[in-house]
Amino acid sequence: MTAHLLLSLALRSAAVGYVLVLIFLPLAALAHQSFAAGWDRFIQDLSAPQAAAALWLTVETAAIATAINALFGTLSALVLVRYEFPGRWLLNALVDLPFAIPTLVAGLMIAAIYGPTSLLGTWLQQGGMAVLYNQPGIILAMVFVTMPFTIRSLQPVLMGLERDQEEAAFTLGASPWLTFWKVTVPSILPGLLTGVFLTFVRALGEFGSIVIVAGNIPMKTQVASVYVYGEIESYNPQAATSVSVLILLISFLVLLLLERLTRRPGERLPRLFQWTRQKDPRDSESVVPTAAI
């Protein structure tokens, strides 16, 4: 029992220490630096016109990109899981491409397609729709870098989903569209929520591709991450950390909401140890600590 307890404590201490060193301590240091000049300075930094515009543009474009990926990501996951067609393996491999390439390269790819010298970019500009250095370019970059989240979150759920209820709905006369909304969507909702929330959080912090496709035009195409970079270069770390803390706070609240929505009904947060009476080879009445899962 003592060896098991020591092993459990060592493993949990290593896990907690890993998270503290890599995540909690940097976040605490950033928050401390942000509020070092006081709460009034923090509010002043966030309410500055350029900072407020960058924050609003970031949240707005991230929400639009999330909605686009929620729709097309769900359809893509359904196609990849339930249909066989030539080139399916290649399409499934391409889904992970945004994870594999640097985001700066992603921005260059978008600029090459929609730039003013490209065929498609010239045609769009003639129609009055400029992609680069405008909001459509920001949204397109966010959609590209976050595309895998919804698809990869839904694929395992769809693979393990029994189709008995869908077939029963078809038998009762429900249309494919009604069956999808009333039967399929509720069954895959946890995976869908995971993909949607992770997409939104990732889009909030996108930097590399947006620098290429949107530039750094204050009050127009300057997102929060680019604003933070500009303030650092302008030797104004106080404003940079204030905006960073707000973005981190939004992301943290979104992840907390995701954890709450995807938690099973009645499930409680795990405790450090859950003491249960188990059968021990040496003593059937021994109390053995069991790590809570």
From TrEMBL:
Pfam families: BPD_transp_1. InterPro entries: CysT_permease, MetI-like, MetI-like_sf, Sulph_transpt2. Residues 55-258 form the ABC transmembrane type-1 domain. Keywords: Membrane, Sulfate transport, Transmembrane, Transmembrane helix, Transport. It is a multi-pass membrane protein. CDD domains: TM_PBP2. Belongs to the binding-protein-dependent transport system permease family. CysTW subfamily. The complex is composed of two ATP-binding proteins (CysA), two transmembrane proteins (CysT and CysW) and a solute-binding protein (CysP). This is Sulfate transport system permease protein CysT. The gene is cysT.
